Amino acid sequence: MGIGETLAEGREQAGLTITEVSLRTRVRESVIRGIERDDFAACGGDFYARGHIRTIARVVGVDPEPLVRAFDDAHGGAPQPSSASGAWETDRPLVPFRERRGPNWSAAMAMAFAALVVVGGVQFFGGRGGEHAARQVAERPAQAAASPHRQQPRRAGDPVAAAPRKNVELRLKARRATWVNVRGDKGRTLFSGTLRSGTVREWKAKKKISVLIGNGGGVRLTVNGKDLGTPGQSGNVVHLDFTPSDPEAA
């Protein structure tokens, strides 16, 4: 029995119509009909076809793993993501995700440092006074420059160095039922399925997390502890990649 025939039989045994399966999986009815005929051309690529097979199988009560293995055997192994433009209900173009940036702390830190230098200079000259004190203050920067082990005072405009993160962390909260595919290091699948409204999930990887969201307005993202809000409008498919350095500082 082929993949499509197995899914069609499972759907009928579950008492579901193609329309009901489409509403539960957010996969278009025409795509589901094609899959049940073992026609995966409308899926948008092998990567998304595998995701549709998994999602539909779970909804109709069929074990997805044997079907995915059969698909891989017939199509040359597990594929990498391609375009998802034809796989979901919406035909609207993707909305670019504008990354929110944090405040620029460089100028504020530089001003605070300058204020400390002024106060320290006033106290020093008040306690020692005279030409000798001025000579001592002038000599200290030269001594600091000559020593390779002493840190130079940071100048205004220099970037504030932040300790590098060791991992990338993604937190996702579903505002409404949304299909999500999350992949970690080396493309390993961390999650693939539909999140119910109100569900909160978290994932972690060392180098990179890739997330494919079937409804950009249906979720809220937090990356490395920073709330990025919703990544797109309702009905739009969004594909994002995050690393330990995201979101970048301004």
From TrEMBL:
Q: Which UniProt keywords apply?
A: Membrane, Transmembrane, Transmembrane helix
Tell whether Transit peptide is among the UniProt keywords: no
Name the source's superkingdom: Bacteria
Regions crossing the membrane: 105-126
Can you give the residue ranges of the Cytoskeleton protein RodZ-like C-terminal domain?
Answer: 171-240
The record's section on InterPro entries has: Bact_Cytoskel_RodZ, Cro/C1-type_HTH, Lambda_DNA-bd_dom_sf, RodZ-like_C
Q: Per its record, how is this protein called by name?
A: Cytoskeletal protein RodZ
Q: Which organism is it from?
A: Actinomadura rubteroloni
